[in-house]
Amino acid sequence: MLSESMETAINGQINKEIFSSYLYMAMGMYFEAEDLSGAASWMRTQALEEMTHAEKFMNFVNERGGRVTLQAIAKPAFAWDSPHAAFTAALEHERFISASINDLVASARKDNDYMSDNFLQWFVGEQVEEEASVSEVIRMFKLAGTSGGGLLMIDRELGSRVFTPPAAE
User: Fold this and answer.
1) Among 8, 92, 122, 159, which is most exposed with the fewest C-beta within 10 angstroms?
2) Domain 4-158, CATH 1.20.272.10 — does that match?
3) In the chain, what is the greatest distance between 2 CA atoms, to the nearest angstrom?
4) Blockwise average pLDDT, block size 10, the chain, 169 residues
5) Structural domain boundaries of the chain?
6) What's the chain look like in SS3?
7) Cα gap 77→99, rounded to integer Å
């Protein structure tokens, strides 16, 4: 059985994951408006990935006998000064999510909740990938500078990303 405190904390994380999806969808629409369809596609793929994270958390709460209580989703930003700034905001957001996952792990360990700790380790590894992925895009923008050709090459590269759902457990 999931403790009340862990259930509450995971419900908070579900909200953060759904907000993440909402934020990345907003970023995708920003990129669409900027005629950067590859970056828009990358962000829509990221939005799908974040919803699968929320689903994993919801399934876990249900499997442990808890109750999922969905909360209101905050309004995300919808405009950025540049594509580079949008991805920098995405990295800041991923770091926020990483800190939140770390807090969940600390809570699980404090409560000797080994099942939650084990479950959360997938997200710990996932956050390493999330931060690295966004950092790589930021690195590409830094290298390209304000070059129109460089931006087009990055956009083409970003458009090649495809959504791969995590393996069923």
Assistant:
1) 92
2) no
3) 56
4) 96 98 98 96 97 97 97 96 96 98 98 97 97 96 83 91 74
5) 4-158
6) CCCHHHHHHHHHHHHHHHHHHHHHHHHHHHHHHCCCHHHHHHHHHHHHHHHHHHHHHHHHHHHCCCCCCCCCCCCCCCCCCCHHHHHHHHHHHHHHHHHHHHHHHHHHHHCCCHHHHHHHHHHHHHHHHHHHHHHHHHHHHHHHCCCHHHHHHHHHHHCCCCCCCCCCC
7) 21
